[in-house]
Design goal:
about 260 residues; alpha+beta; Peptide Deformylase; 12 strands; disordered C terminus; binds zinc ion
Length: about 260
Amino acid sequence: MFPDPILRKKCRVVRRVDMDKARELASDMIETMDGAGGVGLAANQVGALQRVVTLHIPGDDEAIVLINPEIRDTEGEREIVEGCLSFPGYEGMVKRSITVKARWLDENGSKMKITTDELIAQALEHEVDHLNGILYTDHLLAHEKLVAAGTYMEDDEPHMHDVELEVHADHSDEGEEPEESDIEVVHSTIKFSDLYSESAVDQMRYDLRREGFLAEESESVASEHSHSHTHTHDHVESDDPHLDGGVLLDPEHKH
Ligand SMILES: [Zn+2]
């Protein structure tokens, strides 16, 4: 998550001998990306400095793995709304190419290439930027700042989806064919929406504003602040008018 310094690091090229490791990393990344409802993920977003990207274009059955992806050529310019899993809850208007030519190795080491537009082009530029330590906030249009996710598009889906899991636990003895009674089915929900604590979100808002990525106190932010302030105040009230949360509130003793 922003502002973790690893997001500003350049990822290393995956060598042939490290393809197995890259494959393993990619499968973890697909889980994380799909779990968070993301379109793309770069390895440094999950703490690995490898040139590995995963993409899952909405509507496609499968996610794809891109090892050592390179943008070969771009054409045209467009302004488009973008978000990033490293900045949960925000989106911004950026400038991207219309057409993108890219090449990479797939998880088997086969050479792949594509000339594409629309969302895939945008995602390719976004993710290859990540591998070079570049964030989409670097491309924000001069007059634009980040805004709360969903501001630009009314039908925008929430960035964090909860994931329903059905786990089949096999309790049969090793080597024996499991019977139906040996299989325990456990349902669980991963609440990705709970992954980021309120304090982490507050911290990110502070860091974003300090970097100038965020507009000055917007209305919604301002009202949230005054709300939490009121809450804090209620919390420390005391029957003794001189005591407020253990602090003596005597005007004569104020420094
Ligand atoms: Zn991103």
